[in-house]
Amino acid sequence: MIKCFVLVLSFRRIIVLSGDIKRFMNWLFPHKCIACSAEVDAYSTLCTRCFTEITFIDHPICRVCGRMFENQESYDQDEICDRCLETQQHFDMARSLMQHDSFSRRVIMRIKKATDYGIVKICAKRIYTKYPRLFDNIDYIIPVPSHWTRLLRRGNNPPDVIALKLADVSGIECRRLLRRIRRTEYQKDKSVVERAANVARAFVCNCEESIIAGKGIIIVDDVITTGATLNECAKVLKLAGAAIVKCVTVTSTRPSHKWYEPISSLS
């Protein structure tokens, strides 16, 4: 009886001590907002200010590219945007988590600079929760590849990290089935036509076509603007026999008539 009493007391001391250690560690290494690095409580990933700044993609959206419409109030249901009606889209559908704005730009820049992969994990979980049916009948998740020279200079390829995290949360295999064989110019300040021409014939299959034939594939990128890069990747996969090609990005811009003039973007 006495031994049991002593054991209970010892156990309670361990619990109290572990709580003290946890509080000390939280004080020594405070939890920070994944977007702005402001201190938050132990159960939060975003501070209140940053959370209110998020513009999550919401319906109505384009049924193909998944983007919110420029004049959102003019639509009461999902439709196909003018851009997708005028362009041959080789992917079956694309979906994004957030609207591309000043806040999400900060998120993307942190991913691009590889300063915090924790934010990638949060985004991957939210994408999977928001679009669970997007992952139906999918065999592989693949990243948009970077040219080796750019990878050498930058040190990382953001779509690689996002794709790996999506593979973790979905349980779908992540593979690098595409290779970038031509170093393209940055898409910034290019029009729709220029962007498409810039990435034309820039990708090839990185495996035997039999691995792709009849498969369902999700292509992952950080941002979709006009969709030129994702469309070119999807074209290569469809020519290799892929049955389904879908696309996932963290952010997306709204369809805009301004695309027919040079525009500035991260993609």
Record keyword descriptors for this entry.
10 helices, Rossmann fold, 7 strands, alpha/beta, disordered C terminus, 5-stranded parallel β-sheet, 267 residues, 40% helix, two-stranded antiparallel sheet
Protein architecture, described:
There is one protein chain. Helix 10 (228-239) links the parallel strand 6 and strand 7 (244-252). The strands form two sheets. Strands 1-7-6-2-3 form a five-stranded parallel beta sheet, with helices on both faces. It has a two-stranded antiparallel ribbon with strand order 4-5. The chain is globular, with a radius of gyration of 22 Å. The protein contains ten helices and seven strands. The chain has helices at residues 2-28, 48-53, 82-86, 102-112, 118-130, 148-154, 158-170, 192-199, 209-212, 228-239, and strands at 93-99, 140-143, 173-174, 178-180, 203-205, 216-224, 244-252. Helix 5 crosses helix 7 (158-170). The longest helix is centred in the first third of the chain and has 27 residues, at 2-28. It has one domain: Rossmann fold (3-Layer(aba) Sandwich), CATH 3.40.50.2020. With 267 residues, the chain is α/β, with parallel strands linked by helices.
